[in-house]
Specification:
single chain; about 140 residues; alpha+beta; 5 helices; 4 strands
Length: about 140
């Protein structure tokens, strides 16, 4: 015995919740990888600025070197201070990057799936919906 049913409308809120969960779980590993890569880049930049802060240059070749402070010369004190704080709090930064990726991806996928459901509801209102045949 077969029964025919028509899907005329999809409830958007459960669809959006499912999309958020799907997007968050999907971006768990990429978020972790981005967090690890981000903290490594912060550490490398912090080390680079700390090691190349000053240099001695003999511009005229007379044996009288001039010491240049690149951090002061390029006005990078605020950047160096920020990188120092971020590098000191490496695990917090990694956790924040990971959470931002997971939440952002979850919201983006949830919104996308909700828009697809809204489009289906609009088309179903115009065309009568999707017909499903079920057997017992």
């Amino acid at each position: 015995m077969t029964h025919r049913y028509t899907v005329r409308k999809i409830n958007l809120l459960p669809l959006a919740k499912f999309g958020c969960l799907l997007g968050g779980v999907t971006l768990l590993l990429p978020g972790l990888l981005c967090a690890l890569a981000g903290t490594q880049v912060i550490g490398l930049l912090h080390t680079f600025l700390a090691e190349t802060q000053t240099a001695e240059v003999d511009p005229l070749g007379l044996g009288v070197p001039v010491e240049l402070d690149f951090i002061h010369l390029l006005n990078l004190k605020d950047v160096q201070a920020l990188l120092t704080r971020l590098d000191d709090q490496r695990w917090v930064v990694a956790l924040l990057i990971m959470l931002m990726m997971i939440l952002g991806g979850g919201l983006l996928v949830g919104l996308t799936i909700m828009m697809v459901g809204w489009g289906y509801n609009l088309l179903a209102a115009l065309t009568g919906g999707l017909e499903v045949e079920l057997r017992e």
